[in-house]
């Protein structure tokens, strides 16, 4: 409420600082404010319904169906609301101030939706519907952006659109936060597979070449061979055998001496 009070207090100053363009008499002004107000209030009620339905979710996939049904209806209301608001005429200064109140209440309602969904995110992961919820939130954010643009376009031309945008921007920021949270870890709904083996621990290093030890001290040099040493003497050759005739004579002489 303090935000709205401060915003409302700025409106007269903004109007004075901006050239005032005379608006033609518009008998539909009140009806157009009523249309915009009803669109916003209906969306607020649907947000509260979504919060209540999400609060009953316990992580079973079948129990996510009612949540998706209610959020689907919310998405439909956002889109239809944008069409309805776009078909209205520009509203006056007083109605512009009044329309900020349902915008503020919508901000609070969206905050409740985002909070309950984030609180239940682990259960959505378990049920395997995280990406489904993320996609739905993304669609709702886009539809809410279109609705906000349509509402701001209906403010009087002497009021800068930033006033309406500032009042509604928190709605878009909160939806964007929810989308990011569900998109970033949506794949956690899948059962984790076995972890890939990490790199094998390095085994003991192979021994390198042994460091060379100290060189052995050189032994005493072998004594040089004595050049004067006598060469080994070959045994004497046997005397040649006596001729056969000589042997016969010797035998004959020996026999003669024996007979004497």
UniProtKB/TrEMBL annotation:
GO cellular component: extracellular region
Protein name listed in UniProt: Uncharacterized protein
Keyword Signal annotated: yes
Biased composition (Pro residues): 194-217
Pfam families (alphabetical): HsbA (PF12296)
Segments for region (Disordered): 186-260
Highest taxon in the source lineage: Eukaryota
UniProt keyword terms in alphabetical order: Signal
N-terminal signal peptide: 1-17
Gene3D superfamilies, alphabetized: 1.20.1280.140
Ranges annotated as biased composition (Low complexity): 218-232
């Amino acid at each position: 409420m303090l935000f709205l009070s401060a915003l409302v207090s700025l409106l007269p100053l903004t109007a004075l600082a901006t050239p005032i363009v005379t608006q033609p008499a518009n008998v539909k002004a009140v009806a157009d404010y009523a249309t915009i107000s009803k669109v916003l209030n209906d969306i607020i009620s649907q947000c509260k319904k979504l919060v209540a339905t999400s609060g009953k979710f316990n992580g079973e996939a079948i129990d996510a169906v009612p949540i998706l049904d209610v959020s689907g209806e919310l998405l439909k209301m956002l889109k239809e609301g944008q069409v309805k608001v776009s078909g209205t005429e520009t509203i006056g200064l007083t109605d512009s101030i009044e329309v900020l109140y349902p915008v503020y209440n919508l901000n609070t309602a969206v905050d409740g939706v985002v909070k309950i969904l984030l609180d239940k995110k682990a259960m959505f992961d378990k049920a395997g519907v995280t990406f489904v919820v993320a996609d739905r939130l993304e669609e709702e954010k886009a539809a809410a952006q279109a609705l906000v643009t349509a509402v701001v376009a209906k403010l009087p031309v002497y009021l800068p659109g930033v006033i309406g945008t500032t009042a509604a921007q928190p709605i878009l920021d909160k939806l964007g936060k929810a989308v990011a949270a569900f998109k970033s870890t949506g794949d956690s709904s899948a059962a984790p597979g076995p972890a890939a083996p990490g790199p094998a621990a390095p085994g003991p290093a192979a021994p390198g070449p042994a460091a060379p030890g100290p060189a052995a001290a050189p032994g005493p040099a072998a004594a040089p061979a004595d050049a004067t040493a006598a060469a080994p003497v070959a045994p004497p050759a046997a005397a040649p055998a006596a001729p056969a005739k000589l042997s016969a004579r010797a035998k004959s002489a020996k026999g003669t001496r024996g007979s004497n």
